[in-house]
Amino acid sequence: MSQALLLAIWLWPLALATVAHRPGLHWAPAAGALPALIGLLLLPGEVPTLEIPAMLLGAAVGLDALGRGFLAFSGPLWLITGLFIGDRARRGDQGGRLRTLFLLAMSGNLMLILAADGPSFYVGFALMGLAAYGLVVDGGGEARRRAARLYLAWTIVGEVLIFSGLVLVAQRSGGDLGLAALAAGTAESSLAFAAFLAGFGIKAGLFGLHMWLPVTYGQAPSAAAAILASAMIKAGLLGWLRFLPLGGEPLPVWGDTLAALGLAAVAGASLVGLTQRLPGAILGYSSLAKMGILVLGLGLILREPALAPAGTLALTLFAAHHALVKGGLFLGIGLGHHLPPASARRPWIWLGLALLALAIADAPFSSGALAKQALAPLVVASGWPWLKPALALATLGTALLMARLAWVVWQAQEDPSRADAPTRPCTACAWAWVALIVTVIAFPFVLGGRTAPAGTPWPLVLGAALAAAVALVARRRPEWTGRLVGLIPPGDLLHLARVLEPLGGRLVSGWSRLWERADRYGRERLAALAARRTGWPADPDRLADAWPLIGALWLGCLGLLGVLLALA
Amino acid sequence: MTLTAWLPALIVLSSAIPGLVIFFLKEEQVAARTLLNMAGATVKLLLVGLLILGIQDHQVFESRLALAPGLELVLHADALSVLLVALSSGLWFVTTIYAIGYLEGSPYRSRFFGFFSLCVSATVGIALAGNLITFVIFYEILTLTTYPLVAHRGTPQATRGARIYLAYTMIGGVLLLAGAVWLQVLAGPVDFIERGMLAALPVERFGQLQAIFFLLIAGLGVKAALVPLHGWLPQAMVAPAPVSALLHAVAVVKAGAFGIVRIVYDVYGVEFAQALGLLTILAVLASITIVYGSVLALLQDGIKKRLAYSTVSQVSYIALGTALFGPLGTIGGLVHLVHQGLMKITLFFGAGNYAETLGIHKVADLDGVGRRMPWTTLAFTIGALGMIGIPPVAGFISKWYLGIGALKAEMDWAILILAVSSLLNAAYFLPLLYRAWFRDPPAAWPKESIPRGALETRASLLVPPLITAALALALGLFAAAPFGVLEWCRLIAAREYGL
Questions:
Q1: Going by C-beta distance under 8 Å and a sequence separation of 6 or more, which residues neighbour residue B300?
Q2: SS3 of residue A64 by DSSP
Q3: Cα four-point dihedral sign B484, B490, B495, B499
Q4: Regarding beta strands B71-77 and B61-68, do their DSSP bridges make them parallel or antiparallel, or are they unpaired?
Q5: Is the separation of the CB atoms in B385 and B426 below 8 Å?
Q6: Side-chain half-sphere of A216: how many Cα atoms within 13 Å?
Q7: CB under 8 Å to A164, separation ≥6 — which residues?
Q8: Does residue A10 contact residue A110 with C-beta atoms inside 8 Å?
Q9: Test mutation, A51, A557, A564, A567, chain B, max B CBs within 10 A
Q10: Distances B76 to A356, B109, B159, B183, B191 between C-alpha atoms, Å
Q11: Residue ranges of the domains in chain A?
Q12: CA distance A42 to A35
């Protein structure tokens, strides 16, 4: 029974994907995630790993504590987003394609969560990453297409890096492709470590490899961005937790590197995010900042391996909180988009968004406060006294980002030209969103025991005050703040590369012209030479007319063979 | 007793005899020709099945025919032969179905199918050759039987392409023959023996052996399209799609690659080749070809041309695997012999379907074709993703073993080659898939010759790519399955390293 469930969780969406292109299957995207939820409820604490020796290079799936943690938030998110995708597919003209690719991505995500060996994880990761292209590009438009291409290019680079990392550790593990054996190999090869760090880092928005993320989030349809920003980005984190050597020897250099990258992301993303115009891009930068905290945590665990068990749990908790809240924010904004301007439901959407925004800004008694509290032992163990105030500043940054988001969404609502055409609201979607918010509210009370963490309200209060001040200035003197908006386009560092693009283009075209000339010159010289020596036609393509020569060579070789054999 | 002596010869003859008979059929005797073709293909598959069973039972299959004193025609089936025999017989079967559909109603079909059958006989002969001379003979027969296939359409472009093809391969043949003769003089009759036989020669001849190696590799490298000997391959793209499919996946390029494998493992012996320092040079040559072919593929706007340069790149994976000292590299190279065949034939079937059904030849015309021909495009997608190395398609398994093999052989740089090649593959395949699936179709296709009925195109054109795509997927997804290709390659590698 439990083994059948282990298979159904990822095979069922795969099976549905094969039929989901048919018209009318609006329920399919949501239904794909049902076995995952059933599995969460029914699978006992310790499920024996299921070996599938014939699959890939000997595959295995199971559900360990870490996998269960990730399944616990990914499964519901796929289900809820599935409802939104089903609704979107009903309205678009390529609905079948959207449903199919959504289910493929779901299957890949769930497979990588359950995977107990390296290749299976990789298969799931690749399936998820590639299929998600179709979610991003759905609906078309030039800007969206460009964002999707950017996403795909980075995804492929990530795949190749992860593959290199896998090969590097697999050759050390002596044929054992289990996750633990592979992770042990990562400890011995800094090349493999770097490959995994960067490969999964692309998905997880690691500082320096993050440029695609705000662009893609800004342009993707809100339902696609919701799942990208919730379940999929966390797959990158799971990759790190699975393949990096946590809890072995201390790795201070890597630990410090990760901590620095994490802090850089927190600081940079909070500032750049404030200058964004698109709600998706603001949320994208907010995600980068939150992922920065996770990277920081990962770095602290690498410095202090003894913290690995508790630290991994804390990171999972943080990931769950962020995935649920960020998914909810994207979905809520999407819901608001389709409402008529004067709809009576609008205040309810604002209420929901406000609750989610409070949670992500670590308001007291929220899931954010719990997640932050869970990280406290790591922060204390770091021995860095400045870290705690730094994290308070990060919270302040998030609060400001949420204020900026509210401002942008409000303005879009007031400007009817920027809203999508109002459509029949999807009731199931709305209720699913409400359920998600209820989950977020209940999160700290269920997981934190009876004492939900109060946390500290000061960063939030300070953020609100600052935001109010800025809003006042923006009202009175729009030109002051207006100068900052759009100062840094989504994708930030990417635009530094764009400056170099013409130069690169000139280099490439110059090189190919040079090559062509050299090639033609060489061929002409060769043919002319041949013509002078032999009287053949000077066309290099007509060498075949040199039958007499080839024939003579043949006969010569055969004759030689005969003579030599006779002598022997 | 008699079967073991006759089976290799029968496998060669099972396509040669129908081929010869077909030449004498009249153009309009479609039924008889189809019957002969399919009967030959079926008989061959059955015989190959017998062969595989026998080899698993450790039976020895050998047919011998003395040509002259010291010169014997030997057909000998070992585990390595079976790999190419099974691949070419299987793919010949599907390609014949495809070709019947593809050439429906076009002229000179008897000539075409006659040479088509002979071409497969030559390939099987190459696979079963038990000594170097037999190999050389069938290698040349292959050259001569494929020339009319490339020139089949008879247009100036086709004859020009075919002539270039012939010039390259004949010169390659001369080099191979010269190398073979030299080697025979030095070492006596050269039989293919697991782990080779040349290590026993006195040390002062090692210099000559190195020279002979490069002569042989140059001869084989023409068909295997090693840079800079690859020039014929893009020109040969003028051939009809089934021919391109067969040339690229099974017959010609595989003959070259298979020859390289034979020379390294069963003439020199891999340990001896390593000791002579030959493997590193081969690895470098293969790596250059892998990257160069991919870069040129990127620059092509014709679908078939792009696929042709992709072949240049992908076939060198086999040579690379051969050159990576150690069983894992060997497995990677050998398994890619089969994987590349399946994936590339799928891609050519797909390109052929687009051309034959809708008149699409250019990459830019692929827009929205996924909506008009979803099944063909699905097969094409599987082939393309496999070429990039996206799991779980078979190409991933090849790259996995090549990657680990490279590390074990302490050629870590080869990982970089694999990575760069994957990126380049993605760069030239993904735009095709994007256009096919995510762009809107044009108002009218360039030249729609087969209207949409119950199926998107003729069944005989649709079924073959679906079969090969499914196999390419299954070989990756169930790579570790018992009786699979991977297991067979492990067996070969174990024998070649004396494990």
A1: B306, B308, B309, B363, B428
A2: coil
A3: negative
A4: antiparallel
A5: no
A6: 31
A7: A192, A195, A199, B403, B415, B418, B419
A8: yes
A9: A557
A10: 73, 33, 36, 20, 10
A11: 516-567
A12: 10
Give B41 to chain A, closest Cα distance, Å. 30
CA distance B114 to A10: 49
Q: What SS3 string covers A222-252? A: HHHHHHHHHHHHHHHHHHHHHHCCCCCCCCH
Confidence of residue A450 (pLDDT cuts 50, 70, 90): low
> B38 to chain A, minimum CA–CA distance in Å?
33
Which contacts (CB < 8 Å, 24+ apart) does range A477-481 have?
Answer: none
CA–CA distance, B366 with B429 (Å, rounded to integer): 12
List Cβ neighbours of A210 (8 Å cut-off, separation of 6 or more): A265, A269, A288
Whether residue B408 lies within 8 A of chain A, CB to CB, comes out as: yes
Q: Nearest by CB to A164, which of B167, B419, B481? A: B419
A568 with B70: Cβ contact below 8 A: yes
| pLDDT given for residue A7 in this prediction | 95
Mean pLDDT, chain B, as a whole number? 92
Position A540 pLDDT exceeds 50? no
A391 at B interface, C-beta within 8 A: no
C-alpha to C-alpha distance for A174 and A164, rounded to whole angstroms: 17
Cα(A153)–Cα(B430) distance, integer angstroms: 10
The percent of residues above 90 in pLDDT, for chain B, comes to 75
B295 touches chain A (CB under 8 A): no
The H or E element spanning position B294 is: helix B278-298
Work out the angle between the directed axes of helices A65-91 and A308-337 (0-180°, nearest 10).
10
In which residue are the tokens 């096919």 written?
A: B436
Compute the radius of gyration of chain A from its Cα atoms: 28
pLDDT confidence of A550, banded at 50, 70, 90? low
Quote the pLDDT of residue A70.
97
Q: How far apart are CA B345 and CA B97, in angstroms?
A: 13
C-alpha dist (Å) from residue B20 to A3, A54, A262, B116: 57, 43, 72, 10
CA distance A268 to A288: 9
pLDDT at residue A539, rounded to an integer: 53
Rounded to the nearest 5°, which phi and psi values hold at B72? -120, 140
Average pLDDT estimate for B175-190: 90
Closest listed residue to residue A125, CA positions, set A160, A83, A153:
A160
Q: Between A and B, how many residue pairs show a Cβ–Cβ distance under 8 A?
A: 113
At which residue do the structure tokens 């079969």 appear? Answer: B467
Q: Does B184 touch chain A (CB under 8 A)?
A: yes
Residues 71-130 of B with CB under 8 A from A: 71
Q: Which stretch of DSSP H or E encloses residue A523? A: helix A494-534
Alpha carbon distance B315, B332 (integer Å): 12
Q: How many helices (H) and strands (E) does chain B have?
A: 20, 2
- State the virtual CA torsion across A219, A221, A222, A226 in degrees, nearest 10: -90
Question: Is A534's pLDDT higher than 60?
Answer: no
* DSSP state at residue B266: I
Confidence of residue A509 (pLDDT cuts 50, 70, 90): confident
Whether residues B167 and A543 touch (CB distance < 8 A) is answered with yes
- Note whether B177 contacts A119, CB cutoff 8 Å: no
Half-sphere exposure of A533 (CA within 13 A, CB side): 8
